[in-house]
Amino acid sequence: MDNSTGSRTFHAANIVFLTVVALITLFPIYYVFIVSFTDIGEYLSRTIILFPETWSFDSYEYLLSSPTIIRAIGVSGFLAVAGTACSLIITASLAYTLSRKKLMGRRVILMLILFTILFNPGIIPNYMLVRNLGLIDNIWSLILPVLSSGWYVILMKGFFDNIPDSLDEAAAIDGCNEITAWFRIVLPLSLPAIAAFGLFYAVEFWNSYFTALLYINDYHKWPIQVLLQNMLAENPLAEADPLHQPPPAEMLKMAAVVIATVPILCIYPFLQKHFAQGVMVGSIKG
């Protein structure tokens, strides 16, 4: 370690700079959280609030007073759970199959997957596909067209490339077929990759917005992101109590951001054990 005066000065400057950057980055998140729990009268009487004198749940009570909000959270929850489960099954199964060198036509399939990454058909062909499949106003239109990602398949394939073929051979000797070996041997070894890509898929499905605008016309089937955007644009909730005075629009926006963000943040601690290793899948060859 270099303990010269210049080196110590450089490290101290780095610490100060990174601390300032961290504070600038975290302050908007902190401010959104604080304002969402601030009392309405205090919010209206103060220019800026760094810490509320009176905590209040009025914004959340107003947002959650409508069954529409609860229904939208349920739709987003279904998308996150069902979509993630289906996507992981498809992605992991395809990636593992492509990682086995004995697969005939393996290179051709990989080239086709790579083609889907480089060339996207665009919005209109995707909309025509969903319409011709009869999925307009169907919640599965937000899952099936994006069931898998070519980029995730290639990354996960890199993880499975590190699993030796000798495990398959040992499983075959013990009487396991391909499916049994996949579920009982390969999947338990793949928890880091499953956790990492499961989190990626869950975030994508929970944040479904643009595809829902295209394919879902019935507001009863809107996910939380679309409903909150529409509600904040038009302000009042259709099913809210008309006698209840709504909080200021800015407070509603803050509470809406918290509602849309916290569920995904709560998932991360349960996946943290495997996430750090999983994000490195395919980057190291053994």
SSE arrangement:
Layout: H1 5-36, H2 40-45, H3 58-63, H4 67-99, H5 106-118, H6 123-132, H7 150-160, H8 165-173, H9 178-189, H10 191-206, H11 210-215, H12 224-234, H13 249-278
Helix pairs in contact: 1-13, 4-7, 4-10, 4-12, 5-7, 10-13, 12-13
Short description:
The protein has helices at residues 5-36, 40-45, 58-63, 67-99, 106-118, 123-132, 150-160, 165-173, 178-189, 191-206, 210-215, 224-234, 249-278. The chain has 286 residues and is mainly α.
Summarize the structure in words:
The protein is an all-alpha fold and 286 residues long. It has 2 domains: 5-58, no CATH class; 60-278, MetI-like fold, CATH 1.10.3720. Helices cover 68% and strands 0% of the residues. The protein is built from 13 helices and no strands. Helix 1 packs across helix 13, helix 4 (67-99) runs antiparallel to helix 12 (224-234) and helix 12 runs antiparallel to helix 13. The radius of gyration is 24 Å and the shape is globular. The two termini are 31 Å apart. The relative contact order is 0.14. Mean pLDDT is 81; it is low at 238-243 and 282-286. Residues 73-271 form the ABC transmembrane type-1 domain. InterPro entries: MetI-like, MetI-like_sf. It comes from Paenibacillus sepulcri. It is found in: Cell membrane. This is Carbohydrate ABC transporter permease.
